[in-house]
Amino acid sequence: MRTQCNKHAPALRIHNLVKKYMTDSETMTTPIKAPVIKKVQQEPHTPPARPPLSRGTLWLMTIATGVVVGNNYYNQPLLGLMARDFGVSEGRISNIAMLTQVGFALGLLLIVPLGDMVRRKRLILVDFGLIILSLVGTTVAPTVGWLFLASFMVGFTSVLPQLFVPMAAELATKEKQSAAIGMVMSGLLLGILLSRVVSGFVGDIWGWKVMYYIATGCMVLLAGLIAWKLPEVHPSFKGSYGSLMKSLLHLTKTQPVLRLAAFRGAMGFAGFSAFWTTLVFHLEDAPFHAGAAVAGSFGIIGAVGALAAALVGRVAKKIAPFNIILSAIIMLGLSWCLFYFGGATYAGLIIGVILLDLGLQSMHIMNQSSFFALNLGANNRLNTVYMFSYFIGGSAGTWLAAQAWRQAQWNGVVAVGFVFTLLALAAHLLYGRSTKTA
Question: What does pTM read for this prediction?
Answer without folding.
Answer: 0.71
